[in-house]
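Step 1: inspect the first sequence and its tokens.
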Amino acid sequence: MDLQVLRSFRAVAEGTTVTDAAAEAHITQPALSRALNRLEDEVGAELLQRVGRVLQLTPAGRVFKEYVDAVLDSYDRGRRAVAEVVDPDAGLVSMAFLHTLGTWLVPRLVTGFRQTFPGVRFELSQDVEIGLAQHLLDATADLIITSKDPGHPLIAWRRLMVEPLWLAVPAGHRLAERRRVRLAEVADEPFIVLKPGHGLRGVTETLCRQAGFTPLVGFEGEEVETLRGLVTAGLGVSLVPASPDTATALPQPSADLPIRYLKVTDVQAVRDIGVAWLGSRTLPPAPQRFIDHAMSVTARMYETSAGRT
């Protein structure tokens, strides 16, 4: 067997027709069919069976595909590592990150990194907290940026920053003119939160428990901007990162703003932001350089915010 036959087998197993898979491999359809038959002979089992007009994996085929995926992914990573050794200023950074970090931190890190290494390409994807670690375990990402240590024995994690969370209230709220508040003061009010599975949802529930109550969930959303919009509409209160420009400093009050951010004083309203990777794997140069860059940028952000607070 050769790698191209394995790639064609994987394509057909994932729903591509034999005709299309043959075209991708630049061979005829009969030639690919013969190659897949030879593959089954070598493995010693039927891997694909026809169901109606399509080919589907047999039980043996499902088992075999797991190993084919691993072989092809390992080979592709090897080719990529060699290419980056030959040209260390190029390469690829494949990264998954929290939705809440896509509006400010990730764009800031990627833009700054590409100013130094313009030849590096990025593959970016977003996910909720509980799904991020799987990107590393499935080898679909080099790095993840997450709000806590995944706590997995195969995953290494490094803290980038501790991000403050503020209590957001609408402009007409009874606490709107305050700068600080105890979280317990809003125990009886509806909370606007992210849906289960998002890291910020878990942090909110934990902080409320520490303050002595279980939050009354009024509305659930999938984006932090949605939470801010619902707070602005007067539908409840929410614990949120302040904004992209004030992520590490207390937002200044303004009579013109339809939303107010209050510092929480009775519990430590923060969340960790960190970067993680597979500890058993030697990262290619580009992802390793990105980690170093992220550490440097976030350290400077803290130095700047310390000077203005």
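Step 2: inspect the second sequence and its tokens, then contrast the two.
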Amino acid sequence: MSLLARLAPHLPYVRRYARALTGDQLTGDNYVRVALEALAAGERQLPSEMTPRVALYHVFHAIWSSTGAQLEDSSGIESGEDDASRRLMRISPRSRQAFLLTALEGFTPSEAAQILAVDPRSVERLIAEAQSDIDAELATDVLIIEDEAIISADIESLVKELGHRVTGTATTHDEAVDAVTRHRPGLVLADIQLADGSSGIDAVKDILKRFDVPVIFITAFPERLLTGERPEPTFLITKPFQPETVKAAISQALFFHPSRQKQAA
């Protein structure tokens, strides 16, 4: 199989990543082009121990880190850039890389470590640093829709650890709708099966009819959402959950939600 055939399926994704990393599509594309030219000329090789996608990102990083990361100047961000791009460019290059590779591109910490040529523990530290910067900037009001008191308390504790404020808790559909009437949240964390037999899905649908807000479903019944019959949620966490998984999802949901970006602008 030719080099182009091996890499073609991954090029749209590495372009997306390059744009997020550099803050500009043209600049990102230039670095992708240089990486491909280096591969075509034999100046760089795809490491055989890596999958083609991981290897492509690895080569891209080797080139970008030698020039782009060192020349980067966040003061040069164009005034027309969206708010997410501005926030990204305020994160240190190395932490930004680890965050984007895992949050945007879906690589595991182990794969991100291969791409960045560091150990997985360093990647986890870099991700934590990026999330800390994001959470401090995007502190918001949170509504928790959960009928199990212990789980609700656990989620509330995680939310507060990240610097957010819990302004409402609900155990039923009606309580959830009433809560957003009294105080509009910046984030909703919702279970599916609620105390009185009502549905967290229906509660969220009614909330979203009023305004756009990022939603994270935390549920023991993910199959009720992953049906293909309705738009499926970007953030879905299965119970029992790991605290770090919930924290990461909160950071990502607030960071990438389009409505949040417009409101911040």
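Step 3: confirm your contrast with the notes below.
The longest strand covers residues 165-170. The first helix runs from residue 3 to 7.
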